[in-house]
């Protein structure tokens, strides 16, 4: 998917609560193509919850999230084709090879990439030549790289990264930086982190606190 010039993400008074516990309260912001938001905070502050709301996996208790693209408005559950998502709890299939995982997820998205395209994507995330290996043989860092391949399958204009460098070594962290810089040219990046070194990625920083 190519860059969408009028791409915009708007959050209006977004709240998420579980019974009496309020995880997010009144989050409002707007992002345009070429901008990066870093969501910072300690564990339990609602960072991952916010990203799940943005990708349509969780509905907010209040407020609204709207994507604007190509002159249309989309709720998150309608905009999944626009969004790529990387998260530590994103489940991959250990009994399948890396290529088989990518083929499966591509089919779920209605994509039919060729073998060369998938191999090139694995090369891009530092897994060149390892596509035929079972995921059960992958280290945690290699599995995290495969999550990036999954997120980039459809070249999304919006990329959501939850704890983007978790389990990655120095070379893996450099890969994340390259992905973020390339994504700026394509659209929007939102990064959830409690690593202060990753604040430098953001044009804006949203700091959440535990209640």
How would you sum up this structure, described in words?
- The protein is α/β, with parallel strands linked by helices and 211 residues long.
- The protein has helices spanning 47-54, 98-108, 115-124, 140-152, 170-186, and strands at 8-18, 21-32, 36-40, 62-69, 72-74, 83-86, 158-162, 188-193, 204-207.
- It has a 5-stranded parallel sheet with strand order 6-7-8-3-9, with helices on both faces.
- A hairpin with a 2-residue loop joins β4 and β5.
- The longest helix has 17 residues, at 170-186.
- The radius of gyration is 17 Å and the shape is globular.
- The chain starts with 7 loop residues before the first strand and ends with a strand.
- The model has no long low-confidence stretch (mean pLDDT 93).
Helix percentage: 25-40%
Anisotropy-based shape: globular
Q: Give the uncertain stretches in residue-range form.
A: none
Structural class per helix/strand content? Answer: alpha/beta
Distance between the termini: 39 Å
Radius of gyration: 17 Å
The largest pleated sheet is described as: 5 strands, parallel
Q: How many E-type strands? A: 9
Order of helices and strands: EEEHEEEHHHEHEE
The whole-number mean of residue pLDDT values reads: 93
Order of strands, main sheet, comes to 6-7-8-3-9
Compute the number of helices.
5
